[in-house]
């Protein structure tokens, strides 16, 4: 039975750098989308909030109109009573009855005055709410147009990148399975703590990629030997030599082209 080939440190470094290249590609795609998904979400919330406000304002106007109708009915009822009491007053038998009916007439007149005052106030409220409805409608129309534009922009980007992103995420998951768990966890931890999510970087001009701290020549020789996994003492990133990086970049570019 053939003995399973041993995974060397170089194999691990190549696999980690391949994983980094895949995840960096995903990062690039997401950076292209930028804040658009959040902008769309915020605009959707704005539109929903404005629609809810419009509904409430319209309900308020309906309620006030109902109140106006009730006051108008009350006025008609008071007018009918005034007519009734006025007729009764003509046939009173004594001053006590006359005074009693006079008080009822006076009360109904006051009811009419109060109802008319209420109607006037209600109409003023409706006019105020109509102004707010008009302003809200204008703002809603503006937000909906902005949302439509942003959604169109986001959908265009998604149409271009969604398929590639899904394929890359599947590749990332597959590559992680081929790397021992402790290294994947270390890689993920470094990625979270460093700028641009770069956990594995090549040496560039004597320093780790994206850093200005020079790596001593002896350490550079060790990295190039690919005998052990070496991290940058300043950033904690895993370091690979430029030749390995170039080879893996060429290999991964071919894979990306097929996605």
Q: How would you concisely characterize the structure shown here?
A:
The chain has helices at 9-33, 36-89, 95-177, 181-193, 217-225, 242-258; strands at 200-204, 207-208, 230-231, 238-240. The chain is mostly helical. It has a 4-stranded mixed sheet.
Q: What oligomeric assembly is this protein in?
A: single chain
Task: Please mark out the parts with pLDDT under 50 across 5 or more consecutive residues, or reply none.
Answer: none
Cα-atom Rg, whole angstroms? Answer: 40 Å
Give me the secondary-structure category.
Answer: mainly alpha
Number of helices: 6
CATH class value of the largest domain: Mainly Alpha
Strand order, sheet with most strands: 2-1-4-3
* Beta-strand segment tally: 4
Name of the CATH architecture of the largest domain: Orthogonal Bundle
| H and E string | HHHHEEHEEH
The figure for the number of domains is 2
How would the blueprint of this fold be written?
Blueprint: H1 9-33, H2 36-89, H3 95-177, H4 181-193, E1 200-204, E2 207-208, H5 217-225, E3 230-231, E4 238-240, H6 242-258
Parallel strand pairs: 1-4
Antiparallel strand pairs: 1-2, 3-4
Helix pairs in contact: 1-3, 1-6, 2-3
């Amino acid at each position: 039975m053939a003995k399973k080939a041993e995974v060397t440190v170089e194999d691990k470094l190549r696999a980690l750098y391949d994983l980094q290249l895949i995840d960096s590609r995903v990062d690039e795609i997401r950076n292209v989308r930028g804040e658009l998904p959040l902008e769309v979400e915020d605009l959707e919330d704005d539109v929903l909030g404005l629609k809810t406000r419009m509904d409430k304002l319209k309900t308020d106007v309906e309620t006030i109109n109902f109140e106006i109708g009730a006051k108008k009915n009350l006025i008609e009822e008071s007018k009918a009573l005034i007519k009734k009491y006025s007729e009764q007053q003509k046939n009173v038998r004594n001053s006590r009855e006359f005074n009693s009916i006079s008080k009822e007439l006076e009360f109904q007149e006051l009811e009419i005055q109060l109802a008319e005052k209420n109607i006037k106030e209600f109409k003023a409220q409706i006019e105020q709410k109509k102004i707010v409805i008009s302003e809200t409608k204008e703002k809603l129309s503006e937000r909906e147009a902005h949302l439509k534009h942003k959604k169109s922009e986001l959908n265009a980007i998604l149409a271009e990148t969604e398929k590639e992103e899904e394929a890359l995420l599947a590749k990332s998951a597959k590559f992680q399975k081929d790397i021992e768990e402790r290294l994947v966890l270390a890689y993920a931890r470094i990625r979270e703590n460093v700028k641009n999510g770069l956990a594995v970087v090549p040496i560039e001009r004597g320093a780790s990629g994206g850093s200005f701290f020079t790596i001593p020549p002896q350490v550079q020789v060790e990295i190039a030997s690919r005998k052990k996994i070496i991290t940058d003492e300043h950033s904690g990133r895993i370091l690979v030599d430029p030749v390995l990086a170039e080879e893996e970049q060429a290999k991964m570019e071919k894979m990306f082209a097929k996605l």
